[in-house]
Amino acid sequence: MKKLLLNSIPVLFLFTACSHDIPDKDVKPQKESAIDRYSFSHAVQASAVALNEQEITVHHVVRGSSVFIECRLNSLSFRKNNPKKQAKLLLKVDGQLVSEHHSAAFVVRDLSAGEHKLVVEAVNANNKPYHLSKEFTVTIQ
Predict the structure, then answer these.
(1) Cβ(65)–Cβ(110) under 8 Å?
(2) Regarding beta strands 85-86 and 66-73, do their DSSP bridges make them parallel or antiparallel, or are they unpaired?
(3) How many Cα atoms within 13 Å fall on the side-chain side of residue 5?
(4) For residue 10, what pLDDT is reported?
(5) CA 32/CA 40 separation, integer angstroms
(6) Phi-psi category of residue 130: left, alpha or beta, with phi > 0 → left and psi -120 to 50 → alpha
(7) Lesser CB count within 10 Å: N end or C end of the chain?
(8) What are phi and psi of 6, to 5 degrees?
């Protein structure tokens, strides 16, 4: 009997707490459209900024002598059947071209101890640059 009573107390609190949040049936929420909240010029300006935004975002994590790299390209794709422009990534370590990648995430293995400058650059299939690149420095212990 005590267990039944102890288990029913939280349920009782739940029902009594939720009963106060029931909305009044006579109050109707006022619907507001996006056009009413923002002027038309703001909406057009936001669209223009989103369309012109060409950038590459690079996240990296160092683990031992390896660097895990993940890239995000807003205006390019690595898939052949995508309507966006097709791209690949060139990786330079300390000014030397090390590899090319056809995916957004990859691993650079066996870097020597010390500080290294890495550059990730987006290019098309013929290695013509899209002028999208990121440079960062990693330290291998």
Answers:
(1) yes
(2) unpaired
(3) 2
(4) 56
(5) 15
(6) alpha
(7) N
(8) -65, -35
> Amino acid letter at 132?
L
Task: State the Rg of the chain over Cα.
Answer: 27
pLDDT tens profile 30-78: 544 444 444 444 444 443 334 335 688 999 999 999 999 999 888 888 8
| Separation CA 23–CA 30 (nearest Å) | 14
Place of tokens 């006579």: 26
Amino acid (1-letter code) at residue 67: V
> At 137, which amino acid appears?
T
Q: How many residues does the chain have?
A: 141
Residue ranges and CATH numbers for the domains of the chain are 63-140 (2.60.40.10)
